[in-house]
From TrEMBL:
This is ER membrane protein complex subunit 6. It comes from the Eukaryota. PANTHER family: ER MEMBRANE PROTEIN COMPLEX SUBUNIT 6. The keyword Endoplasmic reticulum applies.
């Protein structure tokens, strides 16, 4: 039997499943809220294209660094994936970021549609009344 495989099995036995579930749930919630707040900030600031995605990457790395410090530099002791689990933003968090970004961008920077006045509806569509 391979000694590395034996070490891997012993490492897996050290994890207590309820604690792993609680840790992953807390990390998921932190990443979700981080992506939503980053999306809201990108929308309010009016960031477009790569600047908005740069804010998402920055927010993800910052939250990962804070979670890493919360694990006292040893995320492998708290999660089976280790630091990769901390840095991975997840597809659903990217979607949450995009939804919050477009929502807040539309609210803050969107143009309003002017209603058509009754005089304009009855008259010539190309003529503007003041």
């Amino acid at each position: 039997m391979d000694p590395n495989a034996q070490d891997s099995e012993q490492q897996q036995q050290l994890y207590y499943p309820p604690h792993i579930v609680a840790n992953q749930s807390r990390i998921y919630s932190t990443k979700f809220l981080t992506s939503c707040f980053a999306g809201a900030a990108a929308g309010i600031l009016g960031l477009e294209n790569f600047r908005g995605f740069a804010l998402f990457v920055f927010a993800t790395l910052l939250s990962s660094a804070l979670l890493w410090s919360r694990c006292k530099g040893l995320p492998k002791n708290h999660l089976p994936g280790g630091w990769v689990e901390l840095v991975n933003p997840g597809q659903e968090n990217l979607s949450s970021f995009l939804l919050a970004w477009t929502l807040f961008y539309g609210i803050v920077h969107g143009e309003t549609i002017q209603p058509i006045s009754p005089l304009q509806a009855d008259g010539d569509a190309n003529q503007v009344y003041d």
